[in-house]
Design brief:
two-stranded antiparallel ribbon, mainly alpha, single chain, 3-stranded antiparallel β-sheet, 4 helices, 53% helix
Length: 137
């Protein structure tokens, strides 16, 4: 489990939810929908992880044909199953939507759990993420 502060544990989905909300705010996007299959997110975060020398908190394996992070995949899945993110329909599996519940979870839970220092650490990651995506709306 990734620890942001010594006394605060971050659970599956927390890092990615924080990055998505911070990127949404950085882009000043009312609704946050982006074209991103899971493998696109893997590629984006791998590049960010290399650029920041491992500061994403996701561990990537290079043993397969492409770099892969099981932790990132768990975060993606957890956010979708919890209803904080989603895919608009089965015909558009490449579209990822940050739902209002995701932003509420960040505001009501993650700001307390992660603390100011933890969120500040993910601000740079969110900025790099925002530079690499195109919001659809």
């Amino acid at each position: 489990m990734f620890s942001v502060d010594s006394e605060n544990d971050v659970f599956p989905g927390d890092r990615l939810c924080t990055v998505l909300v911070l990127a949404k705010r950085r882009l000043n996007s009312k609704d946050f929908s982006l074209k991103a299959h899971d493998y696109d997110l893997q590629r984006i975060f791998y590049r960010i992880d290399r650029q920041t020398r491992g500061k994403t908190g996701f561990v990537f394996s290079n043993s397969g044909p492409v770099p892969y992070s099981p932790d990132l995949e768990e975060d993606i899945t957890w956010l979708q199953f919890s209803g904080l993110t989603g895919r608009p329909d089965l015909q558009s599996p490449e579209i990822l939507v940050l739902k209002p519940q995701g932003e509420a979870y960040f505001n009501e839970v993650l700001t307390k759990r992660m603390g100011k220092r933890g969120i500040e650490r993910l601000e740079r990651i969110a900025g790099l993420f925002a530079e690499r995506i195109s919001v659809l709306n």
